[in-house]
Specification:
This protein is mainly beta. 10% of the residues lie in helices and 21% in strands. It contains one helix and four strands; from the N terminus they run H-E-E-E-E. The strands form two sheets. Strands 1-4 form a two-stranded antiparallel sheet. The chain has a two-stranded antiparallel sheet with strand order 2-3. A hairpin with a 5-residue loop joins strand 2 and strand 3.
Length: 81
């Protein structure tokens, strides 16, 4: 938090409490770097923290980078066409 001598201190909400309010009733799943995220047609994932790399494999075995996603960005099979 930055504070200047001319402005009063502002209490920032606890980020943990904020995430708990936003995602109340939903499950949070931690993933490690390099770990694959299971993709099912009915699922929509939302990145809470970190960066997610979306890629695809071509039939010949080549991999292509589709996107890099950050916090609050949704992804899932339902977004593909």
């Amino acid at each position: 938090m930055l504070q200047t001598s001319t402005s009063p201190a502002v209490d920032l909400p606890d980020l943990r409490q904020l995430f708990e309010q936003i995602y109340h009733g939903r499950n949070l799943y931690p993933f490690s770097s390099g770990q694959e995220i299971p993709m099912f047609p009915e699922d929509v994932w939302v990145v809470c923290r970190g960066v997610v790399q979306l890629s695809t494999l071509y039939p010949r075995g080549d991999e292509a980078l589709l996107a890099l996603l950050g916090a609050s960005m949704p992804f899932g099979l339902s977004f593909t066409g």
